[in-house]
Amino acid sequence: MASMDLYTIIRDLNKRFVVPLPEFYKRRIIFWYDEDREFEDKLDDVQVDNAKLLVLTGTNNFAAKKLLNVDDTTNNYLVYCPLSYEKPEDDWLLDIEMYSEEFRADLISIWMDELGIPSTPAMRKQVKEYRKFFKAKVRRDKIASQNKVPSVPAQLHMAVMGALGGIKDVTPAAIIKEVLKAGMDTDTNDLHQEFVNYGADKAFWSMAKQGSGYVSDQPDIAMLATHILLTATTRTMRLEYLAGLDGFISSPHQSFCFDFISDWLHAEDREQLIEIAKSVEDELKLPQRFMKLEVSDLVDTEVFPCLDEVILIKLMTEIGDHIIDVDVIKRTVEKRRTCVNYEPFKDYYEGILQVANMQAFYKEHSTGFHSAEAKKVWKEYTSEYYKMDTYYRLFHKSYGESLKAYNSDLHDLFRSVMEKVEGLYKNWFLGQLGGNWQTVCSEELAKYGRILEVPQQADFYRNRIDNADSRVFVVISDALRYEVAASLAEQLRRETQADVKLQDVQGIFPTITKFGMAALLPHKELEVEMHGAVLKVMADGVSTDAGYRDRILKAEKPNSVAVKYEDLVNAKRADRSTMVKGMDVVYIYHDTIDEASHTSDTMVFPACDDAIQELKNLTKIICNDFGATHILFTADHGFLYTYSPLTEDDKIDKTGFVNRIVEYGRRYAIMMKDSDPDYLQKVQFLGGTSEYDAFAPKELR
Questions:
Q1: How far, in Å, CA of 207 to CA of 205, rounded?
Q2: How far apart are CA 527 and CA 282, in angstroms?
Q3: Closest C-alpha to 671, from 683, 686, 659
Q4: Which residues pair with 55 in a beta bridge?
Q5: What confidence tens digit (pLDDT) does each residue in 276-331 have?
Q6: Is 616 helix (H, G, I), strand (E, B) or coil?
Q7: Residues 6+ apart with CB under 8 A from 59
Q8: What is the DSSP string of 68-129?
Q9: Do 146 and 162 contact (CB within 8 A), yes or no?
Q10: H/E/C letters for each residue in 594-607?
Q11: Separation CA 233–CA 300 (nearest Å)
Q12: Gyration radius of the chain's alpha carbons
């Protein structure tokens, strides 16, 4: 684009002078600004219709002012002004210009007018310096698309750099960020080379100095990145811990650098910053420096990725050395959770948090478990001891997840932590609590087949369903052990407005699906029949296998139904409603945990979390789609799981168990021999979780 030719100028001026005057105006005065004096030698050829030409020379200011204000107040005037003023008060005709119109015909003016840039001398000078940039319309369009029109030279510098960097919301931080993203080598950084090409590089380094404090005779992008990262670090880390790196730090600019890094860390493109930070920490050997500090010195800083690895290495090493500071671990995990780089290390942090919880539990019960009554041990477990099972489960959930993303620096250390967890859980908790339980419960189990004063699973239907005064939904989750149910209850309380209660019952023996499912159905008597090599549990003479449960429920209450979880959640809403329409008792069978245990032992703990999520979702379906207000979650049995296999030392002699089963068999035989000649093919279960509380036929010995 070039300046307008004289013919075009005269044509445009004539058009403007014939336009109707604004209200209250009696004539039109147009100031033609031409600071570059491009048309000064062509004025003799300028003939404008309906207007007189007045040329300002810089020496006729008074005469011009008198002419326009006093001598001739009726004629239209075209005032040619090749002058520029440093200060507005130097302009004699400023008051006239304020109510007059403006016209420009030079290229710079056209560009500025096109972009809405104010035509001040300083801005015109700056646009001229960027003439090469403004020549291309595509680049001018980028200026036009920005959120703010530049009005002073500093803003124009940023607008040009922002346009070259493809930035709409132009700020110093945004420009510096785009330069760093383009590469650490100044000579091959494409964006910086664009700045050089269009004359914006000096403005960039001046802006970087003003914002970050970085100064150098030979400015370098990698050094700028190092300077910003280290200066930002001093906001959360004592300056003395970075001794020897003072040349990269400008304390007065700490706020800008910290905000710059923090904003980038929370942006979607933070991975590029993390790669830059990794390069800087490797170059300066920061991991080795940080390893000499305490965890408390590092925990508040998140600028460098190596910090999480250093913190975890130090904590895991201490755990391996039997130094477990519960408070330090909990505070550390709590703080690191708020860091943007937490996710890659989440499993390690959550794992050691459970170690801290287990250690706190151990300290609280370091004297062991010495209750003298079975019902007291039962109560202590259901109110307090079950938490250790939860901590152990959550640890192994995190440990299992950590194995999916190998970290060479943390893998072996975390495995050592796992071995400490195994020792604490299996040898101390299960060993001592199990020993206490076996000591206090054996007499009651031998005499009554159950623990006195503890609700029984076999009474579930009679106690909870028969007496219900409203529609009841019963969700039976296979292998949903007590501590998982406690987690489910806690989450339901937190996430819903429901009144959630957690209660306990003693399960029937043996604690496997076949027997537990039978105990939860309505019955007067449970029996076992052997059909060849297949054992069947019968409720009042009817098989309790999955295909018969709906029949048993309906025999007790006609408006009852048994459905599978998968069938319910996979059905359309209308079909779901049809399944339970008109039903007073709905049994829903859920099998996530138990099914996972048949696939792989290592999947049991992750399946517990899956089950909790599924049961919460099922709760929404039951409440929202069915309008239910009464839901019971229960299980057929629980499980005991340790990551490390049991050794021979962990197993008990089965002689006592077999002798008790044989003794129960003899007693049962005496009772049954007169009325039932096939007594050895049947067995009645009285309920309970212990290995002692059952009558057993000869085939099961």
A1: 5
A2: 71
A3: 683
A4: 80
A5: 999 999 999 999 999 999 999 999 999 999 999 999 999 999 999 999 999 999 99
A6: helix
A7: none
A8: IIII-SSS-EEEEE----SSGGG-TTHHHHHTSEEEE-SHHHHHHHHHT----HHHHHHHHH
A9: yes
A10: HHHHHHCHHHHHHH
A11: 10
A12: 42
Q: How far apart are CA 235 and CA 303, in angstroms?
A: 10
CA distances from 177 to 198, 233, 247, 265, 299 (A): 19, 17, 21, 11, 26
- Sign of the Cα pseudo-torsion (39, 44, 48, 54, in order): positive
* Token pair recorded at residue 699: 């085939």
Helix (H) or strand (E) holding 398: helix 386-402
The conformational region for residue 687 under phi > 0 = left, psi -120 to 50 = alpha, else beta, is: left
Distance CA 253, CA 210 (A): 9
Q: Give the residue among 564, 526, 523, 518 at the shortest CA–CA distance from 545.
A: 518
pLDDT digits (tens, 9 = 90+) for 493-509: 999 988 999 999 999 98
Number of Cβ atoms within 10 Å of the Cβ of 78: 22
Q: What confidence tens digit (pLDDT) does each residue in 124-166 have?
A: 889 999 999 998 999 999 999 999 999 999 999 999 999 999 9
397 in Cβ contact with 606 (< 8 Å)? yes
694 close to 685: Cβ distance less than 8 angstroms: yes
Amino acid at 229: L
Q: Which of 538, 503, 508 is nearest to 523 (CA)?
A: 538
CA distance 175 to 159: 10
